Amino acid sequence: MRIDSTNYAQANKALASVLLLYYHLLREGGITNDQTVYLAPDDFDPFVYLTVEVSEDQRNEIDETLLREGAALCLLCDLNDLVADCDADGSTHPLLQKIVDALTRNAAYAVPEALVIAQEVSASKGELDHERLNTRLNVVFEKYVVGRFRALARIDTADRGSRS
Fold first, then answer.
1. What is the 3-state secondary structure (H, E, C) of 58-110?
2. Who's near 11: CB < 8 A, 6+ residues apart?
3. Given CA atoms 144, 134, 29, 86 in this order, what sign does their dihedral have?
4. Using CA atoms, how far apart are residues 107 and 60, in angstroms rounded to an integer?
5. Both ends of the chain: CA-CA distance in Å?
6. Which helix (H) or strand (E) holds 139?
7. If you compute the radius of gyration of the chain from its CA atoms, what whole number of angstroms results?
8. What confidence score (pLDDT) does residue 162 get?
9. Which of 3, 32, 73, 95 has the most CB atoms in a 10 Å sphere around its CB?
10. pTM of the complete model
11. Which of 96, 70, 99 has its CA nearest to residue 85?
12. Residue 144: DSSP 8-state
């Protein structure tokens, strides 16, 4: 998907969805369960936004990196839910395989850690090390969600200081 002046309103809804997801992730202290239920599928399809491109004239308003990272985080949340909810060998679940495929093909440049997680889930054949998965998910949460908000807070603080 390419965001330009004709569809930026949809991208704004997608950004709002990512921020809502990040809010719930922060509130719950990481990637737990059922955190994507708050997102409206018509506003944000993570499979589409994983590879979104924003035209140059829209980049001041629409954060391409945040959309891509948010899409990867959303898919990791869904992947985590499926792993927790499926039987011993959830690797045969069609949605799980769709998520693994999307992350394997497209997440490396947005959230490289998602590629490793997807590969481990795919290769686990019912023998997934859940402790290692949770550790990897926590690293992603800290880096992309907590890190994003820390960076935004620093920017805001610096901007306020320069306005004084």
1. HCCCCCHHHHHHHHHHHHHHHHHHHHHHCCCCHHHCHHHHHHHHHHHHHCCCC
2. 3, 52, 54, 58, 62, 67
3. positive
4. 23
5. 41
6. helix 130-140
7. 16
8. 55
9. 73
10. 0.90
11. 96
12. I
Per-residue pLDDT tens over the stretch 29-77: 999 989 899 999 999 999 999 999 999 999 989 999 999 999 999 999 9
Domain boundary assignment for the chain: 2-163
Give the pLDDT band (50/70/90) at residue 90. Answer: low
Q: Note every long-range contact of 82-89, with CB atoms under 8 Å and residues 24 or more positions apart, other chains counting.
A: 83/121, 83/128, 83/130, 83/133, 84/33, 87/126, 88/126, 89/125, 89/126
Q: For residue range 94-146, list pLDDT tens digits in order.
A: 889 999 999 999 988 899 999 999 999 988 767 888 899 999 999 999 999 99
Which among 139, 145, 102 is positioned nearest to 121, based on CA atoms? 102
Q: What is the DSSP string of 22-53?
A: HHHHHHHTSS-SSGGGGS-TTT--HHHHTT-E
4 alpha carbon, distance to own chain's centre: 22
Q: How far apart are CA 2 and CA 51, in angstroms?
A: 9
